[in-house]
Predict the structure.
Amino acid sequence: MKNFFLFLCLIFFYAACNSTSENTPVDIAPALKNNGGRELDSSHLTFVGTFEGILPCVDCGGIKTELILYQDIANSENNSYTLKETYLGGKLGDTTFSSNGKWDILKGIKGDDAAIVYFLNYDEPDDSRYYLKKGDTTIIMLDKDQKLIEPPLNHILRRK
């Protein structure tokens, strides 16, 4: 009986690990991990860049956005970002929110397997954000399903 139960558990485990769905977006597990195992050490961080722009806003004049990325080449779990968003011309005037967290790189989106996507807050699914890298100077904000946002409003941030 024990062997039968063990056999059933193995079958369920195998089925769960191998199930796929065509409608499932790119796996949220960062694809290009480098698990160096070191503790966070700011001397190993490399400045990736500062990206700025004014993103669309439903109830204000726009969201002035500044995203600063730092990368730890030896251990991607130490990649960090700072995001500053200022809601322009809202009911209470300009209102600024700042946040920071972890980020990583995903490779590929639907229709472009070679695309590079900056994946912010991969450890907090409700607050995750995605930015598609377009060349060395531009990133484009994607929706929660890692697709371009429609209608095609200005969701572009440019390197400062």
About this structure: Residues 1-41 have pLDDT under 50 and may be disordered. The radius of gyration is 19 Å. DSSP finds one helix and eight strands in the chain.
